[in-house]
Amino acid sequence: MKKLVVLVLALAISGLLFTTNAQDKTVKKDAAKKETVKPAAAKTIFNKVCPVMEEDVDAKVQTVEYKGKTIGFCCKKCVKKFNADPEKYMKHISADGQKYVD
What we know:
It contains three helices and two strands; from the N terminus they run H-E-E-H-H. It is mainly α. The chain has two domains: 1-38; 39-102, no CATH class.
């Protein structure tokens, strides 16, 4: 009877150790993934005025990368219009990106 109790206890303890070890490995893998995945760096929006509507740029609206510059817009409708003909709208942004140019 004592041998049976000892055997059951030994199996129970080894099962706990095995489960804990497996969980530790999973936690370590998750931690490693978190360390290697870094959030994308926030890009600076080049222009202050929407090249489509001449309104102030809304930083919450999607931006477009165009010829090495991050172009901002006042609304998502402008993003769609810009993507259809970027050159048409880029001429409305001053060289420093601060003003709307006719």
